[in-house]
Structures are given as structure tokens and as C-alpha cells.
Amino acid sequence: MGADFLYPEFEVVRNPNRCVNCRICERQCSNGVHGWDAKTKTMTQDDAKCVDCQRCVAMCPTRALKIVKSDCVFRENANWSNDAIREIHKQASTGGALLSSMGNPTTAPIYWDRLLINASQVTNPPVDPLREPMETRVFLGKKPNRIERGPDGKIVPKLEPQLELSVPIMFAAMSYGSISLNAHAALARAATELGILYNTGEGGLREDFYQYGPNTVVQVASGRFGVHEDYLRAGVAIEIKMGQGAKPGIGGHLPGEKIVGDVAKTRMIPEGADAVSPAPHHDIYSIEDLRQLVLSLKEATEYRKPIIVKVAAVHNIAAIASGIARSGADVIAIDGWRGGTGAAPTRIRDNVGIPVELALAAVDQRLRDEGIRNDVSLIVGGSVRSASDLVKAIALGADACYIGTATLIALGCRMCRTCRSGKCNWGIATQRPELVERLDPEIGRKRLVNLVSAWKLELAEMMGGMGINSVEALRGNRLMLRGVGLTEKELEVLGVSCAGE
Amino acid sequence: MKLEGQVRIPSGCAIAAAISREGRRFNGEKIAAAMRPMRERSNGLGGGFAGYGIYPEYKDFFALHMFFESRDARKSCESYLKERFEIVQSEIMPTRKIPEITDEPIIWRYFVAPHRSALRSLQVDENEFVVRVATKINAETNGAHIFSCGKNMGAFKAVGYPEDVARFYRLEEYEGYSWIAHGRYPTNTPGWWGGAHPFALLDRAVVHNGEISSYDANRRCVEMFGYKCSLMTDTEVITYIMDRLLRVQGLTLTEVAQIVAAPFWSTIDAIDDPEERERLKYLRTAFSSLLITGPFSIILGFNGGLMALNDRLKLRSSVVGEKGDAVYIASEEAAIRAMEENVENVWAPAGGEPVIVYAKEGGR
Predict the structure, then answer these.
(1) CATH number of the domain within which B81 lies
(2) CATH number reported for the structural domain that contains residue A469 in this entry
(3) Which of A432, A447, B90, B112 has its CA 20 to 30 A from that of A32?
């Protein structure tokens, strides 16, 4: 109590007329919010422990529960927000750096929402996706600048290794450890069913997941957790993680509480030890070193797998991407400032990096200015929230999008943003067996398949409206976008005209 | 109001072509006649033609057809040209004053050959050299515009109805073995002569009816390779795609058709022959940014022949007919019948199905 006391952020509201004392909420809450007083035979609660994950709300059979934001707040101040004051109190009491989970939640500009999509009227017809073929298949990888013909004059149809996607969506890197085995299983199975790819993240890969190899991207990050020869060969592509949008400039951090049993084994590290990835790759201090790692990985996999280099969107992203495109990499993945995370220092998450929309526009244009856009494909993520964000990303120049947070929401996540606690009541960001088993991988698979199928449908509808029947004709087609409420400079960086122009 | 090139102007259109497989030359009256019944498809804001085999006496020289805004613009451009080309003939374009065509720019014609020394110093062949000069002159706002630069062929275009444009340029005085024509229906135009079609680069000239939805994806792709889409029209970008794929990449016409109007993946997947399946998959994947979507019906003219092609959904009309060694193509059958009353074998090619016709003269 005293200076350290902060009134709970959320209050659990229990409707006594509906509550039947079934105690399901008590069993469902890993945070220990709900309790049972045997003497009075009534439910008790400790609001201070509530994270607003809404598990109890969803499971309550009589709809007796709701979680509301507390109205006990500090005196209103436009400069010193409630959060700012609370954070100072926390730091004054603990001396620690603030940690947060999931992507940047602040009100800073979301450029997707300032971009509008075109549709055909009169001078050319929209294409009806219900009656005409609508193609969403894409191939990621280097495209040749010269064709080759054999002695018989026939084209030699030899391409550098390509990744085929039935729809330009990939599941973003989320490690086994940061999320549960069942979440991983749901992602792997859904990717397989959908004809797209999921990504192991930096936590290694259990052997029983090798069966999903044709739909797997294996990641090599600075900690090299779980990296060995069979692992590199297990997927269809290898991603070198140089950075993450939520925390550019630092490595991944998986708290020891999540490094249990099988997770430790898969990562090839001791149980209970924090898995802290180094900020840099210690064999990459410059662009020429990246080239060596790219080529080493290609050697190790007989040049059969495309190499993806994932970087966080930072100020100089266009020049960085140009360097990567010349490093031998096949695909560049750009992770934006709003990208998700299991745990990141709050100040870094909210203040370091740039919005992915601007980064994408700048990179696509720079690679074209240098005539090397065909040498690499571009994937962007962080954060793509809907099919319209996807359409806008492709029109700005992306070949495909990574979705991470959206997949977790599909699996049940309510965005309570406490993944780092390891107590995820939805069985997603946890390793506690009793919580993990709450997520049925088969139901998860179905929900992910539903999500991507729905987006594919919406993508087709928007493409049809523009009179485009193949997604490659949308890629980089910035005339299909207009900006609203943007400055001339922002429009210039995005390479789009203002609405009405 | 912004000029074409500063703003993108979509337009609907009429197109037509006539070619003699035997390389028989005929004057421009026939192709002009084709445009008359399609007057509804134009609105008087642009018409044009290209004829092949029309300059046999200068067949080894590039024929530059140019618009100039002023005498000064011509003088300064001419000195620029003289540094790069031997000019064997320089003359005002023969035209006829008619009330239907007004406000013409200065229209000039040069027959030129690039200086060997210039080719050596840039290490390029003469075609690439001419492309670079034309791109530079047209991208700069210097009051000069090259609208035709091929050998033994020429484009003729103006703001007006196509049949009037033919009279204006005295096309009855030219004889060619192949002709293509265009009537334009821009939705909004400042009436700029350079914006009329055909759009031509070297001997390749394109007439197009449609509005492609892939425009900016195509434009941003070809601009990587040095082309400048200074007019912002579909026809311009299609011409650059043709130049890139045919001249620079050395692809065949059929292969080009399989890239710009690629078969659907479902069609490719269903092909039994694995070699053919791989070939089509390769073309679509390697040149995915050059797929053209949205409605188009184009005729590509070149020395020795022409190709007609529709978008893969066939969202624009295109009809083909034959009579003897002649092949006729047009947006409407009526236009073909205006050229040849007793036309035979009239048919409408399917979407994405190229119609390729070669003439003996300069053929392959």
C-alpha cells in the first residue's frame, strides 16, 4: 500500500442475479482473480490480478461476468496520461525497464487507414469474382532478368528456388516457446491446408513437425536456438532474422518460465534459463557478413531453398534493403513499427522504428530505382489487420504479407497484452500444460483456415472491383491507391496521389 | 488543365488493320475507309495510322516523324539530332489543310542513320541507340516529340476523327503492305497530338482499345529498364512491354502473348504435357509484372507483320476476316466490310489468343 499502490486497471463485474456459483471462472483463471469463500458460499475476486483476457467472460455459462475499465483514475492531464503516471510509479517501485507484449498500441498514425482503394466505373468493367476466375497465387523468389534458350531454341524454364503461395499471406514467425505447441500445430496444419507457409520463429522445430516441411519457413536468429543441419533442411525456405519490428536493435527474449521441458530441448538450451538472443548476429557486423551467412545457408541446403532476410523497419530501411537485395538473399521481409511480440521493452516497442507502410513504399521504390526489384521479393508485416490492409500493402509493392497477431486473435486471443507472463488463459502464449490443452489444434486449424479463406474472398472482391483478375497486376500498382489526410511529403514517400487528384 | 503525361487519361477506342501476306502494297485509303463506320467509337479527340513498307527508297534509314511546338524547338532539337545522326533527308511532313483538323504543331520528317562513332562510344546497337534518343527527347519538355522512329514505316496521328486524319496526312499517297489504325475516345483530354495513337517505338506500333487495370504495375516494371512513360497511356506502356520482351529479351510473339495475356493458372495446371506446363509456368512467374489485366484489344504492327491480341477475358471486341492473301482485323465486322465487301472466314479470336500474320516483305 502507500506510494506503491495502484488501483486495479480493470474491475470484474459479477451479476449476482445470474451467477450460479458454478466456479467455472475460478478454474478458468490462471491469474487467480476468482475465488470461492466456502464459509459464505459466495464467489470472491481480486481485481488487481485481472488482465482483461476475458476468458472468464467467454466461459461463464450464465453470462454473469463482464470486465470493465476502472474509473478510478488520476486527475485528467493531457500531458501526463494515466499510463505515463502508472509507469513512473512502477519504475520507481522496481527499478526495472518496462516490458510489454503485442504490438505498439498507441494512437500514432496508421497509414493503412489513410489509404483508399480504387474501383472501376464506366470506362472499364469491374470483374465479377463470383463468375470469373480470380487469381491469388504468387511466387516469391528471384526472377530472371534474362531468359535462356537451349540449343533447340526452347526456353530453359529454370528459375531460382521459388515459394508458391495460394494467396499472398504467410503466418509470421512466432517461436515454439513464445507460443504453445498446440498453437504451432494449428498454424502448421492450417498453412498446409491453405497452401501457404508458417514460420518456426527462433525456437527450433520438433521432429514431429517436419511433416509440415513443405509449408514451413525455418528461422535462424542471432541466438541460433535449435539450429542444426536437419532443421535447415526441414522447411522450404530459411529466414535469417536480423530484426523485429516490435524491438529493432535488440534480440528476442523468452523468459525462463516458458523454457520448460520440450521447449528447452527443441531450443537446445538448459531448462529454466532465459533465452536471450544477442542484439546482433555476432557473425554479422556488416552487409558483407550477411552475404556470407546467406551463401553459407545456401551451401548447406544445396541452393534449393530461398533465403529470406527479415529486418525491422528503421530509418534507413531503403538503403538497407538495397544492400540485402545484393547479398544473394531471395526475399526481404520488413517488419513494421507496429509489429507484435511476446515481450519487448515498452520504450523500444513504442518509439523505435518506422511504420511499415512508409518503409514498404520507400523500399519498393528504391529497389526499382536501382533496377533490382526483380532480384528479390518483398514480404511485409507489422501490422496487417485485414484484407484491405493486405490489398493496400500489395498495391504499394509487397509480394505478400506476414500476419501474426491476426492469427493469434483467430486462435482465441483477446489482445490482453500479457503474453510475457506465460499465463495465457487461451492456451496460446503459455507452456503450462493445463492451459495449453485448452487450445484444440484442430479447432485452431479450422479457425485459421476460415480467417485466411475469408480474407482471400475479400481480396478477390476488391481486386474484381478494380478490374484486376490476377494479384500480380495489383503488385506495385499504386495508381489504385489514393491518400486522405496526408501531407504532401507523406504522399510523396508513399508514392500515391491525394484523393480527388 | 493538366496536359497528357501529367495526368492519366483513360479512353475507349476503335482499331483496325489490313495486311497483305504476299507483301502487296496498297495505299492508305482502304484503312481510312475502315474507320468510317466506327465513328461512334471515336469522339474526334484523336486518330492515327501506321503504314509498313511505305518508304522503300529510304528503307535503311530510321524515319523520324516529329511534332514541334515552335520553330525554335525544332532548331534546337535538330542540332541535338545532328550530333547523333547522319540526316539524309529533312522535310516538312506533307499535309492537306482541311477544316476538320486545326491547331496542328510543326510536323517534320527526318530520315537518319546513327553515327557509328556514337554507337561505339555507348557500346549499343543502332536500335537501342534510337530508343534511348527517342526516350530522352520525349521525356523532356522541350517542345519536341518523336512519334515514329522505325525503318520503312511511319505513324501518322492527330487530334481529329481518324478518317479526317487520313486526309490530313494524304495517306492515299503512301503505299504499304500493312496498315493499322486507331480512333480515340478519351474521357477527358486537353487535345494533345502526341497523345493520339498509334504509339510507336522503332518499327513497333501499337493501337489499343481498352483501359488496362494493371497499368501502374506494368509502368513501374518497365521504368526499371530505362523506359519513361511520359504520356501515361496504356498504349505507351504496352509498346514498351513489347519492345522489352521482343527486342531486348528476344521472345517470340507467341511467348509474349503468353506473358501479357497469360493463361489462367487453372488452365496451366490442367496441361498434360509437363514440358509445356513448365514453360508456361516459367513465363508467368518470370514476367509476372508484365501481365496485363483489364480490357484490351490491341494490334501490334511491326516490319513484316502484325499481331492482334485480346485480354484473357475478352472484354473488348476484335474480329478477323480474310480475302485472298489479305487479312483484316477490326473492332467491328462493319469496319472489315468497309475494307473488303466480300470478306471470308470472319471470326472472333478468343481472349488471350494471339492472331499473328506475317507478310513476305521483310518477313521472317
Answers:
(1) 3.60.20.10
(2) 3.20.20.70
(3) A447
Q: What is the pLDDT of residue B188?
A: 56
Residue A113 within any structural domain of the chain: no
- Cα atoms in the Cβ-side hemisphere of radius 13 Å centred on A233: 7
CA nearest A469: which of A482, A460, A477, A456?
A460
Strand order, beta sheet including B62-68: B85-92, B106-114, B62-68, B144-148
Domain match, A92 and A143 both: no
pLDDT given for residue B361 in this prediction: 60
Q: What are phi and psi of B315, to 5 degrees?
A: -90, 0
Q: Can you tell me whether residue A96 is helix, strand or coil?
A: coil
Mean pLDDT across the stretch A142-167? 95
Q: Which helix (H) or strand (E) holds A441?
A: helix A441-465
A399 within domain boundaries: yes
Indicate which of B43, B215, B216, B233 best probes the interface with A, i.e. most A CBs within 10 Å of its own CB.
Answer: B216
Confidence (pTM): 0.94
Q: At A209, list the grid cell.
A: 513437425
B237, three cell numbers: 506502356
**What is the Cα–Cα distance from A455 to A460, expressed in whole angstroms?**
8
**Chain B residues within an 8 Å CB radius of A135:** 264-265
Q: Total structural domains in chain A?
A: 2
**CA A486/CA A115 separation, integer angstroms:** 9
Domain around A52? 2-96
In total, how many domains does chain B have?
A: 1
Examine residue A122 and state whether it is found in any structural domain, yes or no. Answer: no
- Least Cα separation, residue B282 to chain A (angstroms): 5
Judgement on whether residues A380 and A254 belong to the same structural domain of the protein = yes
Q: Are residues A345 and A477 in the same domain?
A: yes
Cis preceding-peptide flag for B94 (omega within 30 of 0): no
Task: Specify the 3-state DSSP secondary structure of A111.
Answer: helix
Q: Is the pLDDT of residue A267 over 90?
A: yes
Residue A291's H or E segment, with its range, is: helix A287-300
In terms of CA atoms, which chain B residue is nearest residue A137? B265
ipTM value for the complex: 0.92
> Does B13 participate in catalysis according to the annotation?
yes
Closest Cα in chain A, distance from residue B68 (Å): 29
Residue B168 pLDDT exceeds 80: yes
Measured between CB atoms, does B255 come within 8 Å of chain A?
A: yes
